Amino acid sequence: MIKRVLALSGLAVSAAFIALLAFPGLKYTIYRELPVDLRWKISYLTSDKFLVGMVFLIERDNALLLVRHRYQDAWGLPGGWVEHGETIEQAVRRELREEIGARVISTSVMEVRKPAYTPVVDIAVRCQIEPGEMLFNDSEVVETRFFPREGLPDDILYTHKPYIQRFIALSGLATAASAEPRPATGATPVP
After folding, report:
1. How many CB atoms lie within 10 A of CB 88?
2. Nearest to 91 by CA among 75, 74, 109
């Protein structure tokens, strides 16, 4: 009896699969008839999942802020990940407070990218921060500097270069690698 039930179930599943192949619109008709919560679950299970990463472009006196992370061998933009339940704005504020001790005045999304073959969506965010010294998290960041646009270092993370180039292009200024970097200045402690 069990073998017969399994055989009939397998036959029913095969027939349903063939029907869906033969009539592509049928799956949408069936889907529409399902309860909404079940539709959401099906959509979630069959959809790709992505991490949302952010890089921050912060300028002061025509100089761009770069950081050197403990786990990187090159300069890069400050950045981080959006955590579950956060808005982009909340994530920007949290990451900049954690990473460099900065308070955000304003933000604007400059660019959103989905690099091919990765489960990541990247958001480049222009940020204005309060003046003052940055008190960086030395367990993550070992150095912060504002580099003049014309004096950006050669050793910048290759994944961050396109964002920096776009930022400079949008700002209407060209770059040349010649000037010496300046250390970050000012003081605003993190609460």
Report:
1. 15
2. 109
**What does the pLDDT profile of the chain (191 residues) look like in tens digits?**
777 766 666 666 676 667 666 767 776 777 778 888 888 888 888 888 889 999 999 999 889 999 999 888 899 999 999 999 999 999 999 999 998 888 999 999 999 999 888 899 999 999 999 988 878 777 888 889 999 988 999 999 999 999 999 999 988 644 443 334 444 444 333 34
The phi, psi pair for 112, rounded to 5°, reads -125, 130
Output Rg (C-alpha) for the chain, integer angstroms. 25
The count of residues in the chain is 191
Distance of CA 171 to the CA centre of its chain: 22
What are the CA-CA distances from residue 121 to residues 90, 159, 160 (Å)? 17, 13, 14
Cβ neighbours of residue 172 closer than 8 Å, sequence gap 6 or more:
none
- Beta bridge partner(s), residue 123: 54, 112
The single residue listed with the structure tokens 């604007």 is 108
